[in-house]
From TrEMBL:
InterPro entries: 6-PGluconate_DH-like_C_sf, NAD(P)-bd_dom_sf, UDP-Glc/GDP-Man, UDP-Glc/GDP-Man_DH_C, UDP-Glc/GDP-Man_DH_C_sf, UDP-Glc/GDP-Man_DH_dimer, UDP-Glc/GDP-Man_DH_N, UDPglc_DH_euk. The active site is at C278 (nucleophile). Its EC number is 1.1.1.22. Residues 334-449 form the UDP-glucose/GDP-mannose dehydrogenase C-terminal domain. This is UDP-glucose 6-dehydrogenase. Pathway: Nucleotide-sugar biosynthesis; UDP-alpha-D-glucuronate biosynthesis; UDP-alpha-D-glucuronate from UDP-alpha-D-glucose: step 1/1. It catalyses: UDP-alpha-D-glucose + 2 NAD(+) + H2O = UDP-alpha-D-glucuronate + 2 NADH + 3 H(+). Belongs to the UDP-glucose/GDP-mannose dehydrogenase family. Substrate binds at residues 163-167, 222-226, 262, 269-275, 340-341, 444. It comes from Subsaximicrobium wynnwilliamsii.
Amino acid sequence: MHNIKNICCIGAGYVGGPTMAVIAQKNPDIKVTVVDINEARIAAWNDADLDKLPIYEPGLDKVVAEARNRNLFFSTAVDEAIEAADMVFISVNTPTKTYGKGKGMAADLKYIELCARQIARVAKTDKIIVEKSTLPVRTAQAIKSILHNTGNGVKFQILSNPEFLAEGTAVQDLMAPDRVLIGGEQTEDGLNAIQALVDIYATWVPNENILTTNLWSSELSKLTANAFLAQRVSSINALSELCEVTGADVNEVAIAIGKDSRIGPKFLKASVGFGGSCFQKDILNLVYIAKSYGLNEVADYWEQVIIMNDYQKRRFAAKIIQTLYNTISGKKIAFLGWAFKKDTNDTRESAAIYVADQLLEEQANIVVYDPKVNAHQMQSDLNYLNTRSEEDNNQYLTTVSNPHQACKDSHAIAVLTEWDEFKTYDWQRIYEEMQKPAFVFDGRGILDKEKLETIGFQVYVIGK
Ligand code: NAD
Ligand code: UGA
């Protein structure tokens, strides 16, 4: 049996940071060290000013304040932390490959393999290795083969423990998860390792919410969960266009179908398209895996979720262009929101990036206000697409720190993120300060359409 006293987590990102903060808070007797090669990120995690944590998540500052420097540590000393640990979580990024075989589809596992090799090189005592990153099914096999060929006699058990938190609600999700999933080898040593991790979660998660499975079921369940969630968004988004042409209201349809307990009400909010670092990446990965086993119909089925999502983003941009008399060259268009959802500063794969890119192609002047995203991040998101020069992106998309400044003198406002504060603005004042006719394109369905129309706005809402 294992008695875990020392945990190391490799990767201090959106998953590693919050997850380990909660594990440390709930297990004060276990020393938890989160390590990363990114020095700036570690410095930010250690900043005395909790507003400077590298990740914005409601409630995270309190958890970090309680556990940090008690039993929670952030460090760049990766080797030392691995060597001292009984259990090592791997929580590094697994982006879509941008080169070689599987380019644009498969998960890039180079960071995972580097971690495995580093653990193999450094470890002098037996360890449990936990896959926290989202990985293709059967990755544990590759990790195992690297770790078991060191020849130094150290024994490893590999577990899969995918993370299901959503950004913006990470702390809440970690405190009361729908389930914790732990997969491991169905051998005596494997089952002991599973139990060691169950014991850590059991300090705050009810036993019936801790599921244990074999390794492959656990790995595949993570990709499947994200695919099902994204599929719901694409399904309702597909219907949003049908609502627009038939006079149905997508919100009313969502409520009507969601009342069926077999369907359920969640994840039926029509939008400008899902973003975030994982949905697209994980579905593409699923499609790639299916194709690699020759399951072409399975691959095509899931790929459609992405195709629909890309279409939804393009459709929203096209609606803006068409409504503004098919010419937006030189027109100021205000963006409210850049993050991929509210309550996060994360912009990865945000729909705003793609909508902006399309409008910039038509020579619009975009001015963005987002409560948590800075100008540098927006520029780097756009530059990453490589559609035009960095100078042009910088000139035609600007960032302001005040929503009124963004909207003043604009021809149109586009709502790209569902930040709550957008609902409470003085829309009368905004109207008075805009060019007329004043257009609002609500890509999140959060504003009061009738109220805005009474003020004088011309309003387009997804799915209405
Ligand atoms: P992230 O990019 O925010 O963080 C990953 C961190 O790992 C980075 O800071 C990077 O510097 C570090 N890193 C990479 N290689 C390293 C190495 N060899 N040694 C030390 N540090 C290293 O990524 P994330 O959003 O935290 O996602 C991590 C994994 O969790 C991914 O597989 C993702 O699919 C999965 N996941 C993410 C979320 C989410 O909401 N973001 C939710 C569930 C699962
Ligand atoms: C998602 C899953 O919800 C998590 O369970 C999972 O752990 C995580 O991916 C991951 O693996 O990274 P996240 O991407 O943080 O979490 O946020 P979601 O709340 O799922 O939203 C994803 C995108 O879908 C956002 O752009 C959101 O605005 C959009 N969305 C969501 C809709 O457009 N409509 C909805 O009804 C729900």
